[in-house]
């Protein structure tokens, strides 16, 4: 029998609930679904990691190599790609952990660092999406003042504050993550060991509020205002209709992707909090929530693969940048090749 974590440590509470597999003092039997999950999760995590690394490295490479300075939106998008890259780069450690029957082979230091990296960048990526939404809101709704408000220095300051806020939300993970030996399973597991049940519920409540309720409220507000402004816009009607279709579609796709990837996880997390607070009970409900927590964890992580597609790659401006970077590289290679041939020709003439 292997321990069954209530969720992989990306966004999780504790490992002990699933390990003990106990609800209200009643022993809950193992489910066959755990065998399927434990077998399939490492493969899924590695796929997410590879795709996320490739897509986000591609995005960052284009932004870094392009000769023009990044705009405000591109500053947010590049930081979003960096956050997603750091997140997916940490996931292979958990693929190894699951494949190893939840025995953590990397030591306590890595247990803390990997989980802080994952947790921090989960928070940061969500709030970079918020910054993107606010940027579009200011650009499309407050068109008269966006020149003053949308400056690169303010964007960089916003990104710096977002990274700091993400680290602040990850402090409980840094403090309470540890490697502990479970003799009943014969493993050393990396898990969250809260000092009390109330602290555990408090941390889970903060996760729901700061990682979902506040971001989704801001994004929803920005989306509503943008759509409303586009509908009442009358100046330049032909261009406005074209802009309306593009902007509205992009904003709705952004919000839809966020909702699809994150709502199931946070709903399950809220139910799990109610279970551990003894508001709800039942062996079967606990088992189902544990399994759903695993599945929806990875649906949320898939957002890190979707981000570079939805926010950057499908954008017309980004495709233009890709083409310009490709041309830059082609010109550089051509100049280097011509220079090499010229030097070789000069050398041969000197020898002759």
From TrEMBL:
Region called Disordered, residue ranges: 1-20
Predominant place of localization: membrane
GO BP of this protein: calcium-mediated signaling; cell chemotaxis; immune response; positive regulation of cytosolic calcium ion concentration; smooth muscle contraction; vasoconstriction
Gene3D superfamilies according to UniProt: Rhodopsin 7-helix transmembrane proteins
Keywords: Cell membrane, Disulfide bond, G-protein coupled receptor, Glycoprotein, Lipoprotein, Membrane, Palmitate, Phosphoprotein, Receptor, Transducer, Transmembrane, Transmembrane helix
InterPro entries given in the database record: Brdyknn_2_rcpt (IPR001504), Brdyknn_rcpt (IPR000496), CCR1-9-like (IPR050119), GPCR_Rhodpsn (IPR000276), GPCR_Rhodpsn_7TM (IPR017452)
Pfam families: 7tm_1
Any one GO MF annotation of this record: bradykinin receptor activity
Domain of life where this protein originates: Eukaryota
Chain ranges of the G-protein coupled receptors family 1 profile domain: 55-311
Compartment(s) where it occurs, according to its Swiss-Prot or TrEMBL record: Cell membrane
Record field: transmembrane: 43-65, 77-96, 116-134, 154-176, 206-228, 249-275, 295-314
Membrane topology: Multi-pass membrane protein
Amino acid composition bias (Low complexity), ranges on this chain: 1-16
Cellular compartments per GO CC: external side of plasma membrane
Function: Receptor for bradykinin. It is associated with G proteins that activate a phosphatidylinositol-calcium second messenger system.
Family, per entry: Belongs to the G-protein coupled receptor 1 family.
Record note on quaternary structure: Forms a complex with PECAM1 and GNAQ. Interacts with PECAM1.
Entry protein name: B2 bradykinin receptor
Underlying gene: BDKRB2
């Amino acid at each position: 029998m292997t321990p069954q974590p209530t969720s992989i440590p990306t966004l999780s509470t504790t490992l002990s609930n699933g390990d003990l597999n106990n609800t209200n003092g009643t022993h809950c039997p193992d489910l066959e679904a755990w065998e399927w999950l434990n077998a399939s999760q490492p493969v899924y995590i590695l796929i997410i990691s590879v795709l996320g690394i490739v897509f986000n490295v591609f995005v960052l490479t284009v932004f870094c190599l392009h000769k023009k300075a990044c705009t405000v939106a591109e500053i947010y998008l590049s930081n979003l790609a960096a956050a997603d890259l750091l997140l997916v780069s940490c996931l292979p450690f958990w693929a190894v952990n699951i494949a190893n029957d939840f025995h953590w082979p990397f030591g306590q230091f890595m247990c803390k660092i990997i989980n802080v990296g994952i947790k921090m960048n989960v928070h940061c990526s969500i709030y970079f999406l918020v910054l993107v939404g606010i940027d579009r809101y200011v650009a499309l709704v407050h068109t008269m003042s966006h020149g003053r408000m949308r400056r690169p220095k303010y964007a960089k300051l916003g990104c710096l504050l977002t990274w700091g806020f993400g680290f602040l939300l990850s402090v409980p993970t840094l403090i309470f993550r540890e490697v502990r030996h479970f003799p009943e399973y014969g493993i050393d597991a990396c898990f969250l060991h809260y000092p009390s049940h109330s602290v555990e519920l408090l941390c889970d409540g903060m996760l729901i509020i700061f990682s979902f309720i506040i971001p989704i409220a801001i994004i929803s507000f920005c989306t509503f205002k943008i759509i409303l402004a586009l509908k009442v816009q009358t100046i330049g009607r032909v261009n406005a209709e074209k802009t309306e279709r593009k902007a509205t579609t992009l904003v709705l796709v952004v919000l839809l992707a966020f909702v699809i990837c994150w709502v199931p996880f946070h709903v399950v997390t809220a139910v799990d909090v109610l279970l551990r607070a003894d508001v709800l009970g039942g062996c079967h409900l606990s088992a189902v929530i544990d399994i759903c927590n695993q599945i929806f964890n990875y649906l949320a992580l898939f957002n890190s693969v979707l981000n570079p597609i939805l926010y950057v790659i499908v954008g017309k401006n980004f495709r233009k940048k890709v083409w310009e970077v490709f041309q830059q590289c082609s010109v550089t290679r051509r100049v280097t090749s011509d220079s090499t041939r010229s030097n070789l020709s000069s050398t041969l003439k000197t020898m002759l």
